Amino acid sequence: AREPLVRQVLRQTFQERAKINVAPTKKGKKDVDEAHYAYSFKYLKNKPVKELRDEQFLKISLAKEESLLTIDISVDMKGVDGYGSDQSYFEEIKAFYYRDEFSHQVQEWNRQRTLAIERALRQFLYPQMAKELMNKLLLEAK
């Protein structure tokens, strides 16, 4: 998780494949109506981040600051149109560390590697990459 090359490749892939999910909060369900500026993106599901146009992310962020919306940016979306395949990015990374042998020790090491990769991605790298991407999108929108 600390290796600069790994972070660089992950950052690049995350920015290319990231999907945004937007949902209204309890307050947002009540306050955001057809005349509200946030109505057009009140519900977004698995929208590719690279398809956000102009100041759209700025408006989404503003609605989030007003506690009208929640934002989630992630990369592992299985079965999403436009994603390419059903293989998640986690599965792609895991393949680089997997040893294809049949002994019990190798199988146990593969299991440990999988747990370590999953923890590094889900607890450390994905949240950090999502935060960086949100900041980048906000800067570009301004």
From TrEMBL:
InterPro entries: Tex-like_dom_sf (IPR023323), TF_Spt6 (IPR017072)
GO biological process: nucleosome organization; transcription elongation-coupled chromatin remodeling
GO terms for cellular component: transcription elongation factor complex
MF terms (GO), sorted A to Z: histone binding; nucleosome binding
Descriptive protein name: Uncharacterized protein
Organism (species): Micrurus carvalhoi
